[in-house]
Amino acid sequence: MSKEKFDYFINGEKGKYEVVIGLEVHAQVLSNSKLFSGSSTKFGADPNKQVSLIDSAFPGMLPVINEECVKQAVRTGLGLNAKINNYSVFDRKNYFYADLPQGYQISQYKNPIVGEGKVLLDMPYGSKEIGIERLHLEQDAGKSIHDMDPSSTYVDLNRSGIALMEIVSKPHLRSPDEVNAYIKKLRTIMRYLGTCDGNMQEGSLRADVNVSVRKVGDKNFGTRCEIKNVNSIKFMQMAIEYEANRQVELLEDGKEIDQETRLFDTKKNETRSMRSKEDAHDYRYFPDPDLLPLKLEQKLIDDLKKSLPELPDNKKERFIQEYGLNSYEANVLVSEKEISDYYEEVAKLSDKKLAATWMMGDLFAMLNDKGLNISNSPISAKNFAELVQSIKSGEISGRIAKEVFEIMVESGDNPKKIIESKGMKQQSDPKELEKMINEILSKNKDKVDQYKAGKEKLFGFFVGQVMKLSGGKANPQLTNEILKKLLKG
Amino acid sequence: MSLDKEKIKHVAKLARISVDEAKVDSLTKDLNSIFKFIEQLNELNTDKVEPLTSILNQSLRSRKDEISDGKIREKILKNSPKKNEEFFVVPKVVE
Amino acid sequence: MSNITNQSLSEILESIKSKKISSLELTQAYIKNIENAKKLNAFVTTTFDQALENAKKFDNKPNNEQLLSGVPLAVKDLFCTENVKTTAGSNILNNFVPSYESTVTKNLWNNGAFLLGKLNCDEFAMGSSNETSFFGNVINPIGDHLVPGGSSGGSSSALAADLTPATIGTDTGGSIRQPASFTGTVGLKPTYGLCSRWGIVAFASSLDQAGPMTKTVNDCSIMLEAMSGFDEKDSTSINKKKETYSKNLKDNIKGLKIGIPKEYRVDNMPKEIDELWEKGKKILKDLGAQLIDISLPHTKYALPTYYIVAPAEASSNLARYDGVRYGYRSQKGKDLIEMYENTRSEGFGDEVKRRILIGTYVLSSGYYDAYYLKAQKVRQLIKKDFDDSFTKVDAILTPSTPSSAFKIGEKTNDPVSMYLNDIFTVPVNLAGLPALSLPAGLDKQGYPLGLQLIGKALDEQKILNIGYAFEKNCGYKNEIKKWWS
User: Fold this and answer.
1) Looking at beta carbons, which residues of chain B come within 8 Å of A274?
2) Helical pair C103-110 and C217-227, crossing angle rounded to 10 deg
């Protein structure tokens, strides 16, 4: 495969700029209950229905940590090839906001549960490693609703206290495309691990985006701006694009960039300064005296490591080795665990390469059309494998297969049954075919003569007639051979 | 070090406490005398001392991941100075 | 029967068990006392109807197997009580009615006691004289011009004035022991983690600990037994087997080693305190204990350390009082931030605001290392001093306070002089240890003075035993003239 060259730069009059991006991804931990209370984490409940006295910070309430959230953070850390810290500390991050009942967020500051790790991206210009700085556990805040009343803000604390993993990347990303690949990769890894559902619509995955620019070749980083709480990849990309250009313009005009927190306005497609956060930078972190340091036993970490599922990078390698797929195919098929599971089931029962082609072609197109995903596909992996096998064995042609596929989507039936009942099996018996062809030739003596006189274009006409008579089931290759032979005679 | 009025106003802002202008002087005096007292600690060299994180020498105890709480909206909202049937209500937040 | 309320908790329990008095009669006697003692201002809330109901219920179906069978108790208004207003002595909570019961009070009720009322205290337990309460200062029954100590001043006053047979307080820097000392009563601050903090309005989480305040050491052991115990809702609760302090109470202390720390002899300490300490040493020595001179070299740094750690934690613990979900909300201000600032400014009193500002400052960017981190390092040194000493001794004897009860208003304009009152009590909180304050004598004005016994972590039984032996041989008797009724 020919490799493209990386070329995301901003050209100013005074030079060519490179964009430096770091992400703080907030991933909601998959757990039944909240990080420090027994309230449910389920999405979509009525306002304030999933709130305990702890989540709403009543006097005298105390946090007790959810063991599953700790394990989920460790699993994620292991999935990011990161160092798991046997000793970590929960700190309070102090600031005031209507949806932060305690007046502080319990987070981890100096001693996070997970240290440095890395994520591998497949870019058109080759693979690129993105460093992970750390991963820590923290509480989510509630939700302030500003548009239900002109003079008041409404506060819903259902989300207050849900466990989040904040995954901080190193400033290794250089373009919106890399950000896209990075988020998708993180999401894939966490979905494989079952530690975060990655559902961006429901806010399970959000990010703060740090952007700075510098002239190509500069060793020092420029002043960065933090764009808060962006909740879709598309918006992240748009925000970066806007913000990088804004910064380059300032520099070109000889102006300074203020280090500040900015908000991405999705309607205007621009970032703007968040004045309300100005004095909030002094978070006054200190260890939460209601909690003790978290000491993880090595055995727990080892056991979690042993129980990890195969992760996408390893699976991709295996798909290439074991199933003879190319890197592109393998990448697509491991992008979701469910897809890779489906593929493996199909590949076990049918031709591996043909299965990949048909999955990535017709199956994905159909799912896409219907807005479905692989886990609720109307075609089971077993039926899909039978279809692939029927093509491979020559029982049906590719064209018939498309018809069978359509019927399978509608009925959910087994392809064998469809082929049988509709008599769609390919006619591959030479004797039968010869009989049929002779019949056609004798009915079209004039055309045979013309053909013999040199009008060879008529060959297509005869093939068409065979197909018509056989209801499209005649084996095309065999038909060609026999036709040629008989027309010569 | 001594605390001036501006510093005190800044800290009060961080703590979300409005300070009565008439009281700033006496507050400044009180806080400075307290800090003078506190700063006795500077006599001690603590370069080689580990800070204490917890007085208890045990690890954090955890609970099982079970839904055991919530669904008490009425109790949660009952004491609120301003609320409706579903939400806490606060003055408009200006972003 | 007329002076049942003069008696100790254990004597009262005996009377109830032997049916010499009914729970209802007992409760009525206390209600009468309370109604006659309004001048003391010890109560923020009374729950008489509820108490009478509970007393009748008990009398109808007495269960005498419990530690606190049929006994009405008033508690500090820092403990959240279900459906009973809980104020923490603050305007910001003046209308707060919890829907839950603190673990410690629930333990008392599960042992047969019931609520008589909520006792005044310094606002958010920040004070040493009960003068910072939004509900007014409390008066010491010892004299109408004296403070009862603080922050559990309502508790000490009510106990000494026979308005409750026993009570509970909280102790962050001396808030049980100092008021006990000022009123001639017994107060115990247990080991950090022995009593659950769940449902107690927090002041400084790493220091706060609930404990009993009683007339006798035996009463103290009964109350401690009832209120303590592991609580899975508190991550700092110690998971250990429950002890039967009252049953195991012994007065034989022969051979025990008692440490006498030289650093507790401070400048300008009244001669009487020194004499009291000498008296205490002699009593213990005569009982067969061995006195050993020890050194706790960082003692003088305990109070400055405390005034960094406690306000830092408080500044964060009190951030939740923002007028959104409960409590007071100011009607002034045009947006959320102004609502916060006005609510907190109008809702908190001066001392609380002062401490929030100190705490905010010592944690703020650029000052954290110089103050908070430094304090946590010194705290480590203070803890180590005790650890080292306890390899040599079983308990440590010190005065409880550097003076007897002072006059109302005497220290209100000088915060540091007020803070200095906790000089002997604060090191114990920083080290998480148990300490018992015992009434030991009177000064020349006739005001009570206390001595403090400090134990190893979880060694409550030993200091209770020493205190028990001391009490029998000290000859102290609280004679309070009921001038208020």
Assistant:
1) 95
2) 110
